[in-house]
Amino acid sequence: MELREFLFKPLKDRSYSFAIRARENGILSGVARMKELAVELGLEVISVAHEGTLLVPGTAVFAARGDAEMVTKAEETLMGVIGKPSGVATATADIVRKANPVKVVCGAWKKISQSTKGELRQAVITSGAGLRMSEQPFVYLDKNYIRMFGGVAEAVGRAKLFDPDRLVVAQLRGEAQDIVEEARTAVQAGAGILMVDTGSLEDFKAVRAAAAADGWRKSVQLAFAGGVSAEELKNIAALGPDIIDVGRAILDAPLLDFSLDVESEDC
């Protein structure tokens, strides 16, 4: 007989009601996976809060009943599938608010494992940020594409050969050329979104000024990226980008704290 089986033997005919409650302000995410786990555990679900629920300390996000072993397994698993997503949703909402009215996207998904990517993507969507630079089909040329092709003109040109009408997004680092000249070259080659990914506001200002002076500011979208923090967003948004790409400031968000408490014995 295993330890838990031994401990719970006197309780085998009893049922307990419990609730999971928030311990801090935030936004709930991860609800779909929590529901799936509740079914797998065999719990009798009483209530579940909706994805995106605004939380304050004490807000109930889940209530159910089950035997002692079910309750213990629920405590070991259910909070784990809402803690990180809710933390990400909370951080995302704060960033979206600070960047308003500029569009915020989170594009750091190559650095996230497949096992958690789905839940974290949903958390970002729940709080109003985007996952993609554009909703229309596009070709994304990151720094390594540009390096391998020997420059942004060659990379964009190759993408345009595949489909002349497809939007091309170019990540600009100012490596082979000055950042302004790289931006001009990308536009001349047919890029429709330029992502200034240096983290330098001065670089963005220079590209924006060139866009205005050359007459392509209205036809090409400008994005800013590169270690963007929540504290910088107001200053970045004031420069007038069309898009701000935020990665770690969203995905490195701490867990949102929850607690599970048995609230009554039903029989």
UniProtKB/TrEMBL annotation:
Cellular component aspect of the GO annotation: cytoplasm
GO biological process, one term: NAD+ biosynthetic process
Reaction catalysed by this enzyme: nicotinate beta-D-ribonucleotide + CO2 + diphosphate = quinolinate + 5-phospho-alpha-D-ribose 1-diphosphate + 2 H(+)
Top-level division of the source organism's lineage: Bacteria
Domain Quinolinate phosphoribosyl transferase N-terminal residue range list: 12-86
Domain Quinolinate phosphoribosyl transferase C-terminal: 88-261
Alphabetically ordered keywords of this record: Glycosyltransferase, Transferase
Single GO molecular function: nicotinate-nucleotide diphosphorylase (carboxylating) activity
Family: Belongs to the NadC/ModD family.
Official protein name in the record: Nicotinate-nucleotide pyrophosphorylase
Native organism: Desulfosporosinus youngiae DSM 17734
